[in-house]
Design a protein that fits this description.
With 759 residues, the chain is α/β, with parallel strands linked by helices. It is built from 23 helices and 31 strands. Strands 6, 7, 8, 9, 10, 11, 12, 13, 14, 15, 16 and 17 form a 12-stranded mixed beta sheet that branches. A 6-stranded mixed beta sheet has the order 18-21-20-19-22-23, with helices on both faces.
Length: 759
């Protein structure tokens, strides 16, 4: 009996061909296995029927955890057997099928770590130790199929030792494309900030010593450079904040081990599982009572972003120092992608760091670290990137067409929706300049190529002036694709619907800004979305509030607070008292008062984020936004220590939730209740009010679920209070668990509308 099998999924770069070889030989079969140019794997089997059935059973049940089989296509073949043994063939360039993809980068495995520490092993202390079960994948591949010559490892011919392991079916490096050792593989080396080589027999551990003593280094990893510094010394972090123009934005840190992380943070079992997984994301952990890192790591926040080492190099950095953790933040100029090339790093980071720890392997595609937090037991993606991208989300239905979504403007990703798979790109960032525009286009094109997709439509935001809208228009015209524009908050809800496979949903979407169908600034919306239509119904929203000075108010939330409070009281004395917190002091405060009196110089917004910003300003928690979401994030950090002391009843008028009276009540109680209690009370009011409105609308519409999406859905207090309110009404409460809650998930939602909803 002869049968040809095509396997699609994540089946290249995960040791699948060696696995197929072993189970074929074990079952007494002959034939071959080879990679294909469409990221799939082709198998020809010759043997008796029962042996082939046993092989297929093994294929499904004994594959590695890194292998994800999407489909097994069997084709009976005529003719006599032509093979006397089973062989791994040279890869084919054929690209018949779509929907397979290469795997994400994978953290160094325990077997490699043991060898890294074994003085008798040829890879002892080798920073780039990998095998078929671990190492870079997505960031090294330039084109398919996944073979060494198609990756950035082609510049490192294997030595005789590595070749023997590569050719040995019993070795776990059998056909491992990243196999290397100190004799033939990439080399690490230290330089000064100007690029002058520093000779040292052990450059990685020397880098660790320099970090421990207070130096700032740029360290090249799998998907780009990190800027690294001591997590306990203030001086290097002060230097780093000045150099990166990063006054208060928190730094991520890398702890040397899980036990070390528990020394300064609270770690639940779910968080420990995420931290220790082969993905190794950054996880936001609550600071413990014995938190002993520098206050400059995460200023005025109750949590800190922590990851564990995920390469041999990372482990070696900690070897001869006592540091529990190092600050490890993405190395990128303001509003630009992470730096990946050595020459680029010298040019852009030379004035920031004291030393560079380079290696001489090129990075094909940049990829930032992933970031999550946990609400109870539910993971919440803030950024889905390294370790996850480009692995697809598997959906329960097939889309009607192949769609590429380009997202919005901030914290962007691209998404390719193909049948029942959504391939979301690595984190791109804010598409506000040429560099990030090019990165977005590159990321989208790379995904299309890797998945062998035949795109029929391109989806983007409704905003006419977004860079992504212009890119989509250009792509539609160049490729004769259908152009689909999706309102921002509709995209959030659509993505949530598809993630949970529901056909209708009342969605609460809260964030800083989204362009509304009326041209207004939306951001606190309750929408009814159904699969039957590419449109939606706006059921309710937060009270429109003035933005004094437009975008300036989003940076200085005292302006927002003044605009809202002016509806309830004379804000002049209070604003003048706090005028020192404005950029131009008393002069600016008097101008704001004039604008309020004349009713000029304002736009309106229903944004939940802006209301939280106003509360933060009134409570003197944050007067200036120096990074995205800063006032609201700091407000949550204050609120976690409080309780609902005010117990404000939601005020609703015509399906509009009042926020003016809420803010005024908080203002009136300054000095009467603690700042923590006031902060929590504001959260509780918004969460109860929005959830109650959504429940009422859902019951009226006969909808059985309420969802919560948008950047504000990262907020644990809001999510928990909403969940209690919705579930108490007997409805399901849905939140994102597989895509980012914020704008990193918008490209997915846009693609869903284009591929599943009736456009």
């Amino acid at each position: 009996m002869r049968v040809k099998i095509n396997v699609t999924g994540i089946v290249q770069g995960v040791g699948f061909r060696p696995f197929v070889y072993r189970i074929a030989v074990r079952n007494g079969l002959t034939g071959y296995v080879r990679n294909r140019g469409d990221a799939g794997v082709e198998i020809l089997l010759e043997g008796n029927e029962q042996s082939i059935l046993n092989f297929l059973c093994d294929l499904k049940q004994k594959k590695s955890p890194l292998t994800h089989i999407h489909d097994i296509i069997k084709t009976p073949m005529k003719g006599k057997d032509q093979h006397t043994n089973f062989t791994i063939y040279k890869s084919s360039e054929e690209t018949e099928l779509s929907g397979s993809v290469i795997p994400p980068d994978i953290a160094v495995c325990d077997d490699c770590l043991r060898e890294l520490r074994d003085p008798k092993d040829p890879r002892y202390n080798y920073f780039f130790i990998t095998c078929t079960n671990c190492g870079p994948r997505f960031t090294i591949i330039e084109r398919l199929p996944y073979d060494r010559e198609k990756t950035t490892m082609r510049e490192f011919p294997m030595c005789s030792f590595c070749k023997r392991e590569y050719a040995d079916p019993l070795n776990r490096r059998f056909h491992a494309q990243t196999v290397a050792c100190p004799t033939c593989g990439p080399e690490a080396y230290l330089t000064t900030s100007s690029g002058e080589h520093i000779k040292h027999a052990d450059p990685v551990r020397e880098a660790g010593r320099l970090l421990s003593e207070g130096a700032v280094l740029a360290v090249k990893g799998y998907g780009g450079f990190h800027v690294v510094a001591s997590a306990t010394r203030d001086e290097p972090l002060e230097v780093l904040r000045r150099a990166k123009h990063r006054r208060a934005k928190p730094f991520a840190i890398m702890a040397r081990s899980l036990e070390a992380a528990k020394g300064f943070s609270e770690v639940t079992s779910k968080e420990a599982s995420l931290l220790s997984s082969y993905v190794r994301p950054i996880v936001l952990l609550n600071k413990s009572d014995v938190y002993n890192l520098s206050p400059l790591v995460a200023p005025d926040l109750h949590n800190v972003g922590v990851m564990l080492p995920y390469t041999g190099l990372h482990y070696l950095l900690f070897d001869r120092v006592g540091d529990l953790a190092f600050v490890m933040t993405s190395a990128n100029p303001p509003n630009q992608p992470i730096v990946k090339d050595n020459d680029e790093a010298l040019k852009t980071l030379g004035d920031t760091v004291d030393y560079f720890l380079f290696h001489n392997r090129k990075i094909a595609y940049r990829c930032d670290d992933s970031v999550l937090r946990v609400h109870g037991t539910h993971p919440v993606f803030i950024r889905r990137s390294r370790g996850y991208a480009p692995a697809p989300l598997m959906l329960k239905e097939k889309a009607e067409r192949c769609v590429v979504g380009l997202g919005g403007e901030l914290n962007n990703t691209a998404c390719v929706l193909l049948e029942n798979k959504a391939f979301i790109s690595q984190h791109v960032g804010d598409v506000e300049n040429v560099e990030t525009r090019e990165f977005l286009q590159e990321a989208a094109s790379h995904l299309i190529r890797l998945t062998n997709s035949r795109v029929e439509a391109v989806a983007c935001d409704l905003h006419p002036k977004f860079t992504t809208t212009r890119i989509a228009q250009e792509l539609a015209e160049q490729n004769s694709w259908q152009l689909i524009q999706v309102q921002h908050h509709h995209a959030h809800v659509a993505g949530l619907m598809m993630e949970h496979a529901v056909n209708e949903l009342v969605g609460v979407t809260c964030d800083g800004y989204g362009y509304g169908v009326d041209g207004g600034a939306w951001g606190g919306e309750i929408l009814l979305c159904t699969r039957d239509s590419a449109t939606f119904k706006r059921l309710a929203h937060l009270e429109p509030q003035p933005l004094l000075g437009g975008d300036v108010a989003t940076r200085y939330p005292l302006r927002i607070a003044a605009g809202i409070l002016s509806k309830k009281t004379n804000v002049e004395p209070w604003l003048l008292e706090h005028s020192g917190r404005l950029l131009h002091g008393e002069t600016e405060a008097k101008l704001i008062i004039q604008q309020l009196q004349k009713g000029v110089g304002t736009t309106e917004t229903t944004s939940c984020g802006r209301v939280l910003d106003a509360v933060a300003a009134i409570l003197s928690i944050c007067y200036e936004r120096t990074y995205e979401g800063e006032p609201a994030i700091k407000l949550e950090s204050m609120a976690v220590k409080g309780k609902d002391a005010l117990n404000m009843e939601p005020i609703v008028d015509g399906n509009v939730l009042d926020t003016s009276q809420m803010l005024y009540t908080v203002f009136e109680n300054l000095g009467e209740a603690s700042l923590a209690d006031l902060a929590y009370s504001a959260h509780a009011y918004l969460a109860r009010g929005l959830a109650s409105l959504a429940v009422e609308q859902a019951l009226d519409c006969g909808v059985k679920a309420v969802g919560f999406s948008g950047g504000v859905a990262c907020n644990q207090i809001l999510a928990e209070v909403m969940r209690r309110t919705v579930e108490a009404a007997g409805l399901r409460f849905l939140v994102h668990e597989a895509v980012p809650v914020g704008d990193g998930g918008v490209s997915f939602g846009q693609s869903v509308v284009g591929g599943f909803f009736r456009v």
